[in-house]
């Protein structure tokens, strides 16, 4: 590397820990991380630069937004602001990389990245939690996994114990509020508890300095909740994402405008960080846990319904057989025999499932992909499963890319076959029917319990989540209303009907969009 000019001596230590990406105006450097934590069993990774100074103020921010809004460039702009890089220095430092460019297995999942930026030259240490972009081609399951990853990360108290600011990154070119945008705004708000609303700010990227009227209109129409200024308008900051690009001499005026705009936005944002009161993630953790519980219960109710239908068919068949035996008729009939078979799971829904090998039941599917110790799976309580029939110990469970699937096969039975089994055992047949009645009743009781628990989860979410009447809830409302009517709970069903009414036509259309494009 050529010797540094006098204007770059103040960056000598940083440049010594960097590599050149591109020569030009400015010259771009890549900061070499001190640590790069990649545990493939975790849904997040951590990269740090420098040593954490516990005597310095430490700010933690979370960045969320749609795919393609420029979060990566924005994080790099923060680093250059902290280093007090000026346009005339003709230098630009980069630390982050674009998750969409990765080719590893985790590039196909919601892998959160935590950037620890600990610069000696800065008066503040900064931790940036960068979430994958919402609404990309990988679908709604990918977006749901962002929530699971955030819950996992929030449990790591040595990394993240508070949040100073949640940054919703939006493009200045955002115009009309489409069904897609309603879905994305809804998904972002559904991550957090109500207590964090005053810590949410808008970071408007690719701006040329004009008042972001369209962005603010879209945010207002979507009823997106965030911090407000003294004029009761959303708190926002403008950035032009061109600072790190090399410019030819004739475009220096454009570059200067870009620097001035982004410097002003960054100054305002860091002033906000200095004055804002950080929030713990306790309520947000409760929101994410309730979301997991809601999704798991819906899956389990659907499983109970299938089991009940199977038992009802089996009961009907044995009642018909009993009538034949009582009448001593000659007959040949076909009987449906139920059995369990392990099959590969649908990889578009999940990668792995937690199953009980004793009960031969699927206890957590979809949604169980990152836990390596099954005792920590969200369906386990005190080392025992809360889902499978016998509430088996976690050691009786396995996590793999297979699930149990109930299948049936047809067997022919003749009168002699039946007589051999039932001839002198009419009482035994009645006992078998009674046993099926008991099993069916037990399934009904379990279904009732699950439906009530699921309704309670909806009510809990409505109480604590920043985003009431969210699409997370609305996608299951019709299903739950029918189940509540089946168990004679009309008042609870009416409560869910009111949620549908409050949601409005826009969210209903966004829900249809979500079902169509994010299956």
Automatic annotation (TrEMBL):
It holds the Pfam family AIG1. InterPro entries: G_AIG1, P-loop_NTPase, Sigma_54_int_dom_ATP-bd_1. The keyword Nucleotide-binding applies. This is AIG1-type G domain-containing protein. It comes from the Eukaryota. Keywords: Coiled coil, Nucleotide-binding. It comes from Culter alburnus. Residues 284-328 form a coiled coil. GO terms for molecular function: GTP binding. Residues 61-215 form the AIG1-type G domain. Belongs to the TRAFAC class TrmE-Era-EngA-EngB-Septin-like GTPase superfamily. AIG1/Toc34/Toc159-like paraseptin GTPase family. IAN subfamily. The lineage of its organism: Eukaryota, Metazoa, Chordata, Craniata, Vertebrata.
């Amino acid at each position: 590397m050529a010797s540094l000019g006098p204007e770059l001596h103040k960056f000598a230590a940083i440049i010594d820990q960097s590599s050149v990406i591109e020569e030009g105006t400015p010259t771009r450097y890549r900061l070499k991380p001190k640590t790069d934590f990649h545990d493939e069993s975790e849904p997040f990774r951590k990269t740090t630069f420098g040593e954490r100074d516990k005597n310095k103020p430490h700010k933690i921010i979370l960045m969320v937004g749609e795919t393609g809004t420029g979060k990566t460039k924005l994080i790099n702009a923060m680093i250059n602001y902290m280093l007090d890089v000026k346009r005339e220095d003709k230098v630009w430092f980069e630390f982050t990389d674009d998750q969409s460019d990765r080719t590893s297995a985790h590039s196909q999942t919601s892998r959160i990245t935590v950037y620890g930026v600990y610069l000696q030259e800065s008066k503040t240490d900064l931790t940036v939690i960068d979430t994958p972009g919402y609404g990309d081609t990988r679908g709604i399951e990918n977006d749901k996994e962002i929530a699971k990853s955030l819950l996992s990360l929030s449990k790591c108290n040595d990394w993240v114990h508070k949040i100073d600011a949640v940054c919703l990154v939006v493009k200045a070119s955002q115009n009309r509020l489409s069904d897609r945008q309603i879905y994305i705004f809804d998904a972002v708000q559904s991550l957090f508890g109500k207590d964090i609303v005053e810590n949410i700010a808008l970071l408007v990227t690719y701006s040329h300095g004009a008042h972001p009227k369209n962005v603010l209109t879209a945010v207002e129409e979507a009823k997106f909740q965030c911090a407000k200024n003294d004029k009761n308008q959303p708190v926002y900051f403008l950035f032009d994402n061109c600072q790190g690009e090399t410019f030819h001499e004739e475009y220096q005026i454009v570059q200067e405008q870009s620097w001035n705009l982004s410097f002003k936005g960054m100054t305002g944002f860091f002033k906000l960080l200095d004055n804002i009161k950080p929030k713990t993630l306790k309520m947000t953790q409760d929101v994410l846990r309730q979301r997991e519980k809601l999704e798991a219960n819906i899956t389990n109710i659907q499983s109970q319904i299938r089991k009940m239908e199977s038992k009802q068919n089996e009961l009907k068949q044995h009642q018909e057989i009993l009538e034949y035996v009582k009448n001593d008729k000659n007959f040949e009939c076909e009987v449906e025999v139920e059995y369990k078979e392990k099959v590969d799971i649908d990889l578009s829904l999940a990668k792995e499932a937690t199953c009980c090998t004793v009960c031969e039941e699927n206890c957590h599917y979809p949604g169980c992909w990152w836990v390596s110790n099954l005792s920590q799976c969200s369906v386990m309580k005190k080392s025992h499963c809360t889902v499978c029939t016998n509430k088996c110990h976690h050691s009786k469970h396995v996590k793999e890319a297979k699930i149990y699937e109930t299948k049936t096969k047809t067997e022919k039975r003749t009168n002699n076959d039946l007589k051999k089994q039932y001839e002198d055992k009419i009482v035994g047949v009645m006992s078998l029917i009674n046993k099926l009645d008991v099993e069916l009743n037990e399934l009904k009781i379990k279904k009732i319990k699950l439906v009530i628990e699921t309704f309670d989860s909806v009510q809990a979410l409505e109480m604590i989540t920043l985003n009431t009447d969210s699409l997370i809830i609305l996608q299951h409302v019709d299903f739950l209303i029918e189940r509540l009517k089946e168990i004679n709970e009309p008042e609870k069903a009416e409560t869910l009907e009111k949620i549908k009414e409050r949601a409005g036509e826009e969210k209903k259309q966004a829900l249809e969009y979500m079902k169509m494009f994010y299956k």
